[in-house]
Amino acid sequence: MVFRSEEMCLAQLFLQSGSEYDCISELGELGLVEFRDLNPSVSSFQRRFVSEIKRCEEMERILGYLLREIHKANIAVPEEDESPLAPPPRQVLEIMEQLQRLEMELSEVARNKEKLQRNLLELTEYTHMLKITRTFIHSRSRHEALGPQYEEFPTMETDSVTGCTGMQRLGAKLGFVSGLIQRVKVEAFERMLWRVCKGYTILSYAEVDENLADLDTGEISKSVVFLISFWGDQIGQKVQKICDCYHCHLYPHPENDEERADVLDSLRTRIQDLNNVLHRTEDYLRQVLQKASESAFAWVVQVKKMKAIYHILNLCSFDVTNKCLIAEVWCPVSDLANLRGALEEGSRKGDATVPSFVNRIPCSDTPPTLLRTNKFTSGFQSIVEAYGVGDYREVSPAPYTIITFPFLFAVMFGDLGHGAVMSLFALWMVLTEKRQKKTRSSNEIWATFFNGRYIILMMGLFSVYTGLIYNDCFSKSLNIFGSGWSIKAMFTNQQWTNKTLQANALLTLDPNISGVFGGPYPFGIDPMWNLAVNRLSFLNSYKMKMSVVIGVIHMSFGVVLSVFNHLHSRQKCNIYLLFLPELLFLLCLFGYLVFMIFYKWLAFGARESSDAPSILIHFINMFVMQGKDITPLYPGQTGLQIFLVVVAMLSVPVLLVGKPLYLYWLFRGGKGLRRRRGYERVRRVSEDDSSTAPPCEDDEEDGLDEVIGSQALPKEFDFADVLLHQAIHTIEFCLGCISNTASYLRLWALSLAHAQLSEVLWAMVMRLGLSISTRVGVVLLVPVFGLFAVLTVSILLVMEGLSAFLHALRLHWVEFQNKFYRGTGVKFVPFDFALLPSVFEQDGLL
User: Fold this and answer.
1) What is the rounded distance in angstroms from the CA atom of residue 60 to the CA atom of residue 338?
2) Distances (CA, A) of 834 to 84, 109, 240, 305, 828
3) Residue 707: CA atoms inside 13 Å, Cβ hemisphere, count?
4) 249 Cβ partners below 8 Å, 6+ apart?
5) In angstroms, what CA-CA distances link 112 with 65, 103, 281, 284?
């Protein structure tokens, strides 16, 4: 990873007619350049290669239909190890013909299959209808043998003399309508029959045991077989219309049992034949899809590349002779040789008589920003670019973020056990990354974790380091080197006795007694503090001071990085009028606070700790110019503090009006001197007979023309506008130094919160499980440990880890990058086939 974006240039490509397709194809394989649109005023429908793009879209449509059919058949599409090259233009029509033939064949087979399935469904429904309605007829016959059941309708009673009903004497015929209806529609269907037919119908229905599929919707639902008996043709017509309204599947009802048996036999034969034909059709369809799946991936990639090539060709313009295409591209200067090689290879493949070539042209536009990354650094670069893409040739925070981001996270998350679990999880993702990339999981949460696997690994490793510093492992301390505190010395020197232990619940170790404190712990915090009652007070003071120290160093480093931006843009005035006042203001106030913290740590030992003054009181008195009655921290403290405050206050007006006054002098007072400098340059150039003037290294001349060297002054200089802009920057920086320093106290707060949550979880869960000494406790220890592991992962690792991640992100974006990083650039997006999105991958078809 580079510390600033790569140098870019604007180049003009002259693509000879006949080889332009192959040249663009070579550039797409390498991903070297970003094309500019030379036809911004021409609509997309009026460009030269619209017909070719439409042809590619038609092939994409066919491929989408093909992949959906393959996906329905549960056939995997094998992917090739190497991406196929874009086919030459003469093969495009061949691929188009193959796809069209395949589409026609598949659509015909699919139509036949759907027709067979529909016929099979109709025959199956007819079979169920015949079987169930037979039970309806037999049950009615039994009811009629018992006597008349419809006394409320006298016209339906049988005459004792003639043996006919009243309806039969009127000439009405008994009719039947039978079929199937969906289960959810039965109640409304029955209600409608009763209201419309005035009760002159008899409805019998029963549910089909087998679930039947609806070919129109593809849903599997329960169906009901019904049989409607009615008198008269008019009632029959009404029943028919009601059945059509409710989308019933109607089938003819047999006259007698013999006819019913014959129909059932013929249906069984036809169903068996249809099943055989349907199986053969499905086998043939699967063979066609299996063969098509072998070439589907290559076709998708080739069509995608062809469409991209023609889209790029639409961005080019033709010369006056219409024999050459002209393209403008942004290209890294280091890749110009590869660009020429790609054009030569494309000309060779296209059998062009005149080779294509590249010409570098001057440009006043701001180039895009290119920062090359690998799989390790890409995650950290994404964190930076989420704030904003860096300006062209601006210092990149990403190389420093690789260290500072996981470190600040670990300061808030410091725990040896939690860091080890996080590191092992990230290490597993790193070791299995090839297999994970092939699976292409559609879970967005998992994809987020996997893309940030190296960030998680670094955060876990740094958390292990800070966990050792805090001597904290699942809220317990590790006594690796042996504690520096000794209780035995308190008894040896007659400070404690057995009566002292019995009379006092809490005892204090006195480090002033010989042998009690043998020296600091070799690495991290002494494990004895884990047993102390005042442990929280000690850690409060320690972590709060540590947060301030880390914050001031981090912000100072950000201010120092701004120097490299000023030097690269040849604006040395910004070093004296921006950088130095900012650095002096920050260090004279908060840098001095860090100095007092370290001085108090080093100057006051265990014996003098009771006389140690408060740093906070001294820092407040530094601003109000008081505190003569308070014991000084060191000799000459008052004079040094007054000097530092004066320097910090004097840096504010320099930061406020320094640069606006200097720019005003350059625009107003320095005109004549700039004219003389320009005349001398022209004269030297003429004498040397050179086409371009060499850069002048004279310090005095650079002092006058440093602003002009990077960006010319405007024709009209608005002093009020510049002063207002600089005033906003000054207020933001001065107040930001205070608020940003306080913002770093989140390191202290989240670190204490994480430690306390870990301690509470241990006390509430694991300690209860370990306190049971019976055999039942051994059995209960397994679910207790499982609960402890689940809560540790869900609360301390996931929730607390996400919280620490977001806070570390804010510290980098606001407190660190704000000091030197503008982030208003445009990202370099090369024309690269590997970066082109695929519609089929987004839909899950590939």
Assistant:
1) 32
2) 11, 35, 61, 10, 15
3) 16
4) 122, 125, 179, 180, 181
5) 17, 14, 8, 12
Q: Enumerate the β-bridge partners of residue 11.
A: 329, 360
Question: Angle at Cα 127 formed by Cα 124 and Cα 131, nearest 5°?
Answer: 145
Residue 691 has pLDDT above 50, yes or no: no
Residue of higher predicted confidence among 691 and 336: 336
Range among 453-462, 596-605, 615-624, 787-796 rated most confident: 453-462
The whole-number pLDDT of residue 2 equals 74
Pairing of strands 174-182, 317-318: unpaired
φ/ψ of 366, rounded to 5, equals -75, 125
Strands 8-16 and 324-332: antiparallel
Please give the average per-residue pLDDT across 273-286, as a whole number.
Answer: 91
Amino acid at 400: Y
81 has a pLDDT exceeding 60: yes
Indicate whether this model's pTM tops 0.70: yes
H runs (alpha helix) in 42-91? 50-72
Which tokens belong to 38? Answer: 């030379």
103-118 pLDDT, tens digit per residue, is 999 999 988 988 998 8
Q: Which domains does the chain have, with CATH numbers?
A: 8-108+283-360 (no CATH), 112-142+173-279 (3.30.70.2750), 376-478+498-529+536-665+719-819 (no CATH)
Give CA separation, 705 vs 173, 598, 673, 675, 719, in Å. Answer: 112, 44, 10, 11, 19
Determine if residue 8 is left, alpha or beta; phi over 0 gives left, psi from -120 to 50 gives alpha, anything else beta.
beta
